[in-house]
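## retry 2 of 3
previous attempt timed out at serialization; input unchanged, resubmitting
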Amino acid sequence: MAPGAGDVLLAGDFTRWLTKPIRLHMDPDGVWRATVSLAPGTWQYRYFVDGEWRDDPECKVRVRNPFGTVNDVIKIRADTRAQAEPKATACSPGSAVPYRLGKPTEPRHLLKY
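## retry succeeded, writing output
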């Protein structure tokens, strides 16, 4: 689905949705990525792929939104600040999905998308 996409954005309550979305860039391995710093808390998000809203297929927690669809949810724990590899507790990233939340690999809540 996303390898052929021309434009992939990450939008959520942390970006004021489409007010300041985060543009993802495709790596040579064909995975769309961006680095985002999130404070501890619960955040809602979705992907905006070529002008259409898409769910994160690896996210297990979703909530209804006012538009009759659902938003994906990620929770960043406060105790991850001291860990070398913070953990996102609401979504379980996978390795076979062409665009996804990647495993957090940096301290201070830096997440790879």
